[in-house]
Amino acid sequence: MSAFSRIVAKNSFFSLLGQVGIKALSFVFSVFVVRRLGGESYGQYMTVLAYVNIFAIFSDLGLAPYALREIAKDKSKTFNLFSNVVALRLLLSIPAVALATGSAWFSGRDPALVWGIFVYSCGLFIYAVQGPLDALLIAKERLDYSSLFSVINQLVFVMLGTLVLVQGYGVLGLIGASLMAVLVPTVLSAGTIRRRLGGLQVQVTPRDWGYLLKRALPFGVIGFTLGLSYKVDTVLLQYFWGDAETGWYNIAYNLIFMLTTISHAVNVSLYPSMVRQHATAPDQMGQIYSRALKYLFALSVPVAVGTTVLADQIIVFLYTPAASPAILPLRILIWVLPLMFLTELLGNIVVIHNQERRVARAIGISTGVNVVLNLILIPSLGLRAAAVVTVITEAVLVVQYLWLLRRELRAVDRLNTFVKPVLSAALMGLCAWLLRGWPLLVVVALAGGLYLAGLVVLKAVDQKEVLFVRQLLTRRTPAAAEEGISQ
User: Could you write out the DSSP letters of every residue in 412-476?
Assistant: First the structure.
């Protein structure tokens, strides 16, 4: 268990550091983009990204996550899997680009939007190489490199994006800047693996392609349904309500994804280590699952409560009063955050138990609910319906995962994991509401301090857990912390 703790601590540190850096840059830059483009052009930009992301899965079909899991389990498969995944993804990108662009054209989209979709979809050829390279770094548990290159990617995008926007190149220039930025981590990842991590050997074996596609298919279904679930609302909003409504909705939605930094960093760090730990010491996995659930929920629920109370001040503070149409969707969408914190971890747990087909089925059901409700409600209710349906979709997914993992999670202390954080967050929310007239940053600081005090008073955390969290955020592995995770 001590080796597991050391690896997770190191990976969590670098992943969290990288994710915080990326999200901070993305957040500041997104505020600049919204202010520079305005709600309508920003809506068009987000529609291009959403549209291509729906079709992007056809350039991968689940190959990247399948290869990541298999390499994490057996390093001897590294070069064969990597080479075949890159070759297959390059070939699959050709019909994916044609499908995305052609469907946009035949559906009667604006020519400028179709052109943007074509340019951005051509980036699938770059991701066909960059994605497997990054997965290779993660599988080798070198999130320090992966996180560093991601930060560099974002830095390059911010610099190029700022330049093209200042020069007046608009949406298309921003798309071009994003694709140019992806080339940088691609080159850096390849060079690092070749020079420092054992090199890169090309072992393309076309006879294995059918087997790989068959084994990766459940992951492909997962990726497609997730992409559809997260992006179909944007595409439908743009079609029925136009670019401005789409822009306001995505201002709120992007704030939610910015807040998933900690969840994603922890889950990316845990996944390869948990795969190996499950193979070598499965009897200890229940304790790890329980602790991870507790920390993720305790971190997310106060953010949801606080954002609900202070949404109007947050939107005006970050953007301008002109962005006030984003306040209502933010108040609704923020409640997807605690659910998303849980679904990423729970989905990984199911996959670790080699039940990815069940994950695919669960996501398929929730995506079906999402698409049907959006098709029914968005034409008449717009962004309000899109926000509510997003929360419902994630709740449906959480319920399915909890049912699938009812045996693995039966030891979870529900009182300390869920009830006490909710009670403390409710008290914090009342405080924030009473102090609404104060400066936003002061209210956030006071309310956050009250929430932490509430957790301590309610004894939702103990000393061992505090030490374990400190271990995850640093690279030290004190004995007490190792005892905390193993007990």
Answer: --HIIIIIHHHHHHHHHHHHHHHTTTS-HHHHHHHHHHHHHHHHHHTT-S-HHHHHHHHHHHSS-
Residues 6+ apart with CB under 8 A from 459: 416, 420
Residue 410 is assigned to a structural domain of this protein: yes
pLDDT digits (tens, 9 = 90+) for 317-349: 888 888 899 999 999 999 999 999 888 888 888
Least confident residue range of 53-67, 282-296, 300-314, 378-392: 282-296
On whether residue 487 sits in a domain, the answer given is: no
Question: How far is residue 37's CA from residue 306's CA, in Å, rounded to a whole number?
Answer: 29
Q: Output the CA torsion sign for 192, 195, 196, 202.
A: positive
Any domain includes 385: yes
Range of the domain at 158: 2-478
Q: Which residue has the tokens 């693995």?
A: 408
**Domain contains 250:** yes
The dihedral formed by the CA atoms of 295, 297, 303 and 307, expressed in degrees to the nearest 10: 180
Tokens of 121: 């979809």
Structure-token pair, residue 294: 């507790």
Within 10 Å of residue 4's Cβ, how many Cβ atoms?
20
Please give the tally of structural domains in the chain: 1
